[in-house]
Hints:
Chain A is mainly alpha-helical. Chain A has a single domain, classed as MetI-like fold, CATH 1.10.3720.10. Chain A contains 13 helices and 2 strands. In chain A, a hairpin with a 2-residue loop joins strand 1 (38-42) and strand 2 (45-48). The longest helix of chain A has 35 residues, at 2-36. Chain A is globular, with a radius of gyration of 24 Å. In chain A, 28% of the residues are buried. Chain B is an alpha+beta fold. In chain B, a hairpin with a 2-residue loop joins strand 11 (242-252) and strand 12. In chain B, helix 2 packs parallel to helix 4 (140-152) and helix 3 (111-124) crosses helix 4. The chains are: A mainly alpha, B alpha+beta. The A-B interface holds A 179, 181-182, 184-192, 195, 199-200, 203-204 and B 54-56, 75-77, 81-83, 85-87, 89, 91-94, 102-103, 105-107, 150-151, 154. Magnesium ion is lined by residues 46-47 of chain B.
Amino acid sequence: MTGDRSRLTMILLMAPLLIWLTALIFIPHAEMFLVSMREKVGVRQYEFGFANYATFFNEPLYWNTFVRTALMSVAATALTLVIGFPVAYYIAKMTRGRSKTILFLLCLIPFWVSELVRTYGWMILLRESGLFSGLLQYVGLASQPIEFLYNDAAIMVGLVYTSMLFMVVPLVTTLDSLDDSMIEAGYDLGGTGVSIWREIVIPHAMPGIVSGCIVVFMLSLGNYLTPILLGGKDSLWFTGLIYTQFITRFNWEQGAAFGFLLLALSSFIVWAGLKLSGQTLSRTMGR
Amino acid sequence: MAEATADLECRGINKDFGTFRAVNDVSFAVPPGTFFSILGPSGCGKTTLLRMAAGFLEPTSGDLLIKGRSMLNVPPNKRPVSMVFQHLALFPMMDVAANIGFGLRRRGEPREDIARKVDAVLARVGLPDVGSRRIEQLSGGQKQRIAIARCMVLEPDVLLLDEPLGALDLKLREHMKVELKQLQSEFNTTFVYITHDQSEALVMSDQIAVMNHGVFEQVGGARELYYDPKTAFVAGFVGDSNRFSGTIESIRGGKLKARTPSGFAMTGTSAADGLSKGDSVDIFVRPEAVRLALSKPPVSKLANATAGTVDSILFNGANSRVLVRDEATKNEIDVAIPQTGEFAGLKRGDKVYIGWDADQTRCFAAGKS
Ligand SMILES: Nc1ncnc2c1ncn2[C@@H]1O[C@H](COP(=O)(O)OP(=O)(O)O)[C@@H](O)[C@H]1O
Ligand SMILES: [Mg+2]
């Protein structure tokens, strides 16, 4: 009797989560998977098969873009980590009280405007008639307008900028929990800055590093606006291909297959990252 | 103080935080092999002083020497001292052996040497088999010993300890007191130990410095501080005391007579020079210096004799006390109960006679501390 009651309570408590998972994650993905497995054989005629996936592997543009997106996302994640770590260390360990809050808010400010406006900000700075170009001409370092936009570096700048907060927040949280006396003990025992970072600070921050990297990587991989706006029409970002299939070509079958490949890719890279760093998902996300 | 070069010496050390002076003109020397304690209430500047010795803070002025070599501008990782932190600061991301080997690895010693030294020091602290354990698997007392082993494996000239027993429960603390002292004599290294707990300092130390408001009040052995305090603060802080205030009516040589606000004329000894007639004094009498009697004759010959009623009895085995409401001074006087059986039947409301000698009545100029 009581067993049944507690089971019922359990089910009721879990219901919102289950509904959410089913309605928003499971059903769309199952539907998408089924769509991706449909081969078009004629007008409104479909057969079950792997043709859409075969198209992907047979067309170099597709899988080149796929690999390129993955590599650029990994690079953007690494760059965000390299820039974000000292920032987070500074916020967590070098500042106190008010200045800490202010620095934290400064990281947050870019997120008060929409991604579109944020990216447009970078376009104002980087375009041919933009601020940087003008400045370089003004100081005489350039004789004619320079286009900074529409290349990989511009995409990288945009991705890193967009992701920074999601790296800094988990890092600050883990670094905050590192007792200052731990670092002092390192020095006291003869350690130098480098060895203390390598043996104490980074191992302690590992869960934060991994969770930050996972989030940043997924955000970069799935980003659409930034690569298109800063990289131009030919930015060759995989989400762009998916968009084209869905919206321009009405080829839902192909788009769904691409979507699934992207899902597989991000799952694989996150899994590989966890394996390489010796962390588990529950340990990094459960903090 | 000693013929040999002191292991640690401070010369007129000051430390200011803004306008606040946390450590004020402190000078002392610690001879090799000494267990030296710095005892003082919380916030008196002990940690600040220790952190200057470790190199985490630079003195505002003054000089600090280790084995005769000035340590000013020498960074912490280049000083021949090690520190046991208040919360030990063991590295949870490493196992015990890696913790202890940390400093040796920094020195670039060969792997086999490190492993051998780690095993040796673990054996010396009595934990030979814990090398592969993780820090969180250790008990409080074991962590303590590992923290000390991690420092001692580097063979420092001086080991600095910042209230390392503070986080332990009472029973373990009592045990670790003895053990720390044993470890110190085993390693035969100079320990500089800071604490706010006088019993820790009294039990373990060869030398104790009593610190208050950034100043060293007195440096000496445990007995010296207890029986011959030089300042009112030391008299009040080290051990228990009954405390009276009074005004000097007559003074000759070291002997003086002081009148308490209630009109009692107290005969005492001046513990410091420079007291004169009319000065206000603080008067200290230890509970065990007060003679307790059920009739008048045994106390009537003492310089200060009075009578009172028992307010309460604080039974604590051999350290039992009785609080006597004194008729003459109107004070509540803390008296140690002699363990002769004579007072076994003492109860609240009983009339008792108490008295104490002039030698045991120490008078200090009032107003300090
Ligand atoms: N970094 C600092 N800045 C300002 N004041 C400090 C600092 N460190 C310590 N103090 C002050 O110096 C005094 C002594 O502190 P501390 O040495 O930690 O005392 P203790 O260890 O004896 O309890 C305290 O009043 C404390 O507030
Ligand atoms: Mg302290």
